[in-house]
Amino acid sequence: MLYNFLAPLANDFAILNLFRYITFRCGGAVFTALLISFVFGPRIIMALKKWQQHGQPIREDGPESHLISKKGTPTMGGLIILLSVFVSTLLWADLYNRYVWIVLLITFGFGLIGLADDCMKVAKKNPKGLPGKLKLLLQGGLSLAACIWIQNIAPAGYSSHLALPFFKNILIDLGWLYPVFAILVIVGSSNAVNLTDGLDGLAIVPIAIAAACFALISYLVGNLVFANYLQIHHVPGTGELAVLLAGIVGAGMGFLWFNAQPAKVFMGDVGSLSLGGAIGATSVITKHELVLFIIGGLFVMEAVSVILQVGSYKLRGGKRIFRMAPIHHHFEKIGWPESTVVARFWILAVIFALLGLATLKLR
Questions:
Q1: How many CA atoms lie within 13 A of 361 on its CB side?
Q2: Which residues, listed in sequence order, are joined to residue 161 by a DSSP beta bridge?
Q3: In this model, does residue 67 exceed pLDDT 50?
Q4: How far apart are CA 153 and CA 32, in angstroms?
């Protein structure tokens, strides 16, 4: 909004030229989202406590300490993040950019699905929430709409093509399979982040790290000079996504203020599903879907641990690989303190992010 109103006046007022720079507006989005989190976060938490009374239902089969330490903590704290991201994006992004609206569609569409899921958990005092098949169906429908929109505005030759990291000129045409692949990326990213959100502060820092990485990738992919220098595929217009993702970084830091151990509020599905979906949609738009698997390696690790655990239980007559899945609970079960698990998983998130960013130059 500020860009659309003030950038055209830059010829008359030189200082307004700042609003033409994506980097300046990214900084503005970070601080705006952070400020909104600090101002409205306590009020939203108080309202959630008043409404939920007993807080989020705790899994009875989880670590025993959770039944005591996390009892009464309200959920749906992702509303703080969504409010911060929405306002900061509206203020600092170019609202004529269609990619911004696509990612906002996924973010808030998935957020509504997560909100319905959280409401059912609280109302029924049951940690299961929405039926899994219904949740996947709704996510798949929104992702399909986003993928069709992305393909309609993608540059010629990119609409159904998959780029390979480490190779500068290779594009694989998946044809009609590409929307299926893109849907799997967006839905998979969303649910992988959701699985990671199980300990105080565990998910939000890796989310902020991944968002910062894709803010950089979006900026580079959208800039012809940098894209040519790095020999990555240029997609005009993606640079504006850096502003939205910067808002996620700021909102994430603000939310961590309240979510650090001991958490005053949990993110809930309203936060984890929406943020995972936003990062997944960005990877599709920027043609860095496979790089997402590297940068989001921690989320992949959590999702794979659940898949292996369920598969082993069904195929091996009730035998489990881990003491509990997702894998962060396994480490709690073998005696790691919660703070140790969280800190070490943050370190892994940084390592995966650095490996993912290295693909930009190693071509």
A1: 4
A2: 173
A3: no
A4: 30
